[in-house]
Each structure stands twice: as C-alpha cells, then as structure tokens.
Amino acid sequence: MTPRNAWVDAARGAALLPMMVFHFAWDLSTFGMIETQIVADPFWMWLARLTAGSFLFVSGIGLALGARAGVTRRAYLRRIGMIAAAAALVSIATFIYLPGFGVFFGILHAIALGSLLAWPLLRAPAWLVGALAAAAFAAPLWAAHEFFNAPVFWWTGLSLRVAPSADYIPILPWIGPMLAGVLLGRAIPMQAGPAPRWLSWPGRHTLAIYLLHQPVLIGGLLAVQPLLAPSPQAIALEFNQAFLTDCRNAAQPDAVCAIYAGCATSRLEPLLSAAHRKRMTLPQREEWTRVLGVCEAEALRPR
C-alpha cells in the first residue's frame, strides 16, 4: 500500500471547505434565497478560481508522491479512470439538472486529463516541468485564437468564446497549478507528522464528498424552500432578468430592453411577490398587462 502524507490529505480536506461554501452560496443564489448573483460577483468568482487551483495544485503533489512511492502504471490509470467516470457523471447530471448550463469540462475533467498529461513528466527534469507550468499559465494570453472556438476545442482553454457552464476549468491554464504541485511533491517528505483528523479524513475521501455534497445541499434547500420566502430584492432581480430575456427574444436592441425591464420592474414592484408565488388576482393580472404595455411604449419612444 502506498504510504500517505497526512498533511497532503489535510490540504485536500482544507480545499473542500471553500468549495462547499461556494456551492452552498451558488445554490442559495440559484434558488433566489439571497440577492447576490454568485456568477457575477468578483469575490465569489475569485474564490472559485482559487479553490480550483488549490485542488489541482494538491493533485500534482499527490501525483509526485505516488511516483516516488512506486505506484504502478495500472494503479495510476485506474485512478484516472475513476476520476474520468466521476467527471462523466457530473456532466450527465448537470446537463439534465441545468439545461444550457451543464458542465462539459469542469474540475474533475481537468484533474483526469491533467493527470494523464503529467504522467510522462513525473520523472522529467525539474526545469522542464517548471517551464511547462509557466507556459501553461501564460498560454491563454498568447495562444488563444478563433480557431479554437469550435466546441471540440473548448477543453483547451484557448477558445475566445465558449458556452455558459456551471464549472469550466479548461486544461490551459489549469494544468499549470498541477505541474507546480508536481515540483513541490518532489521536495516534501513522503510522510509527515499527524495532521488534524477533521481535515485529513475528508481529504482521503475527496472524490466521494465532491460527488455527494451538492445533492445533499440541493436536497436540503428543496426541503426548506417552501418555508423560506426569497428576499424582495431577489424576486425583483429574477423578474428584471425575465423582462430582459423576453425583450431580447423579440429582437429588440439592448438599450431598449434595459429601459423596458427597468420600467416594468419598478412599476410592477407591488405585484412581484404575488407573481412569484403565482397567486395574482384577475385585477392584478390586468394591471400587469397594462403596465407592460406602458413600459413597452416608453422603451420604444424615440429619443
């Protein structure tokens, strides 16, 4: 059995914590329970990037330690196969649960492919691994091109445009942190002193926790959602986006749609809560239709 470094397991466990915090906040935002739009908030986006980078970095450390311990090619490929299968499961689940926002190349995909690409580098000269890590970090800055816009190349990270996704971690630049971890994994002790068990235990079961935590979080929120009313700000934001989408679907310019959505959201504010609960009375529906007509005329008025 390959000896484990308890502190590397603890690092994995530590990376799980911000990941679960981010996903919980993302779920709250998706369910309209908080006003913040997680996917557009710089703090949460940087937290997501730092968390993804930490997972890949620690994965690289683990690869280097495994190579030093004499892990066989068969065991190495079996590990990659398990991660790839889990990545496929995440893609299937998200394309069903989040149509139009499914994960086509997320963190598990990056770890699986990155581990495969890193295999021949685990015993390569340190200068070469370091140079490739630096090149990977910089690649999207100098190698991105329209040629890679086709969906078949989205995994590269060199595309100028990709479809929206709940988790997009392309191989470039994200194999960079993994290769940096490989370099550190060559230098640290194979085994270290005892680490906090509350971190090292989840670090030994990272994949299972990654796959199970979102169904648990979402299931819990679905259970309590009927008991919790979303904030008025979240409801207003939800309807503002809906008004924008309806206007854009009618092929109107963005400037017109912004006026229309702002007008409708503002003037219909007293009715938004009832509309959200789908409990508008007939007079309220008539007022809703009247206001939308007024806002449409306002938005289309020549300026």
Topology:
Layout lengths: L5 H25 L11 H28 L3 H25 L9 H12 L7 H17 L28 H17 L9 H7 L2 H19 L7 H18 L4 H14 L1 H8 L5 H19 L3
What do these coordinates show?
By secondary structure, the protein is mainly α. It folds into 2 domains: 222 residues, no CATH class; 69 residues, no CATH class. It is built from 12 helices and no strands. The radius of gyration is 24 Å and the shape is elongated. The relative contact order is 0.13.
Our count of domains comes out at: 2
Q: State mean pLDDT (0 to 100 scale).
A: 90
Number-wise, the strands total 0
Amino-to-carboxy terminus distance:
75 Å
Indicate the structural class: mainly alpha
| Number of continuous helical runs | 12
**What best-fitting shape do the alpha-carbon axes yield?**
elongated
Estimated helix fraction: 55-70%
Proportion of strand residues: under 5%
Helix-strand pattern, N to C? HHHHHHHHHHHH
| Low-confidence segments | none
Calculate Rg over CA atoms: 24 Å
Main beta sheet: strand number and arrangement? none
Quaternary: single chain
